[in-house]
Write a structure and sequence with these properties.
Radius of gyration: 16 Å
Largest sheet: 9 strands, mixed
Number of domains: 1
CATH class: Alpha Beta
CATH architecture: 3-Layer(aba) Sandwich
Strand content: 15-25%
Structural class: alpha/beta
Number of helices: 7
Number of strands: 13
CATH superfamily: Class I glutamine amidotransferase (GATase) domain
Strand order of the largest sheet: 4-1-5-6-13-12-11-8-9
Shape: globular
């Protein structure tokens, strides 16, 4: 039986209605990797977390809004303009419970940041404002499936096992990044300016985060499908 992968969603306001949405590229990537994608709608009741986790074999924390700095004890800078308090709370609890149950988790962009702050880490609220000599990390007007900058991968990491490369090129759509690493996490990839691009939990079987968007690259660059295949493979153990 193919493993079921839950993908988190975000609230989107359209035509007088609210929608729970996510890029179809997440769905396509999971299915192409051999999993069954299901969407996890945002519910303002943390008690449903356990119900969701009983129904899936793995979790993808998807990209989206900025994580509220209030979660890690800071007030927001002017550059932080789009947050969703309900999503922050819900996904933090979802991740921590998945971690407790050793359910495989893949965090993508915002998802990596959620993993970090959930375990006591902090973020740079705006890379170009707060990191001296930082390079470009937000390819705003470039197609999502275009490569943008390189990252270096720790050769003793799950990411290295997946890609079998110490350096790869990725896309990039973020203006925040990890400042202080969370408890029981380790950095596993970096851009050339030192911005953290990959993390993993030091003791769980598969709790991996990347700062780029592999779901947008997987069709044009099939190597990025390996990340989703690794998640699916990890899920077959449960």
């Amino acid at each position: 039986m193919k493993p079921i992968i839950g993908i988190t969603t975000f609230w989107e306001e359209k035509a007088k209605k609210s929608y729970d949405s996510v890029s179809h590229n997440y769905i396509k990537s999971v299915y192409s990797a051999g999993g069954i994608p299901v969407l996890i709608p945002l519910v303002e009741d943390e008690k449903v977390v356990n119900n969701y986790l009983k129904s899936v074999n793995g979790i993808i924390l998807s990209g989206g809004e900025d994580v509220s700095p209030l979660i890690y004890g800071e007030n927001p800078m002017e550059k932080v303009q789009l947050i969703c308090e309900q999503r922050d709370i819900f996904e933090k609890e979802l991740f921590l419970e998945a971690l407790r149950l050793n359910i495989p988790v893949l965090g993508i962009c915002r998802g990596l940041q959620v993993m970090n702050v959930a375990l006591g880490g902090t973020l740079y609220q705006d890379i170009n404002t707060q990191i001296e000599n930082s390079l470009g990390h937000y390819q705003k007007d470039t197609p999502v499936n275009n490569l943008y900058h390189q990252v270096k991968i720790d050769n003793e990491s799950i990411l290295f096992d997946i890609f079998d490369e110490e350096k790869i090129s990725v896309n990039s759509f973020h203006h925040q990044s990890i400042k202080k690493i969370g408890n029981n996490l380790k950095e596993t990839a970096w851009s050339v300016d030192g911005v953290v691009e990959g993390i993993e939990h030091i003791s769980k079987d598969f709790a991996v985060g990347v700062q780029w968007h592999p779901e947008d690259l997987a069709t044009k660059y099939p190597d990025f499908l390996k990340l989703f295949k690794a998640l699916v493979q990890a899920c077959t153990q449960y």
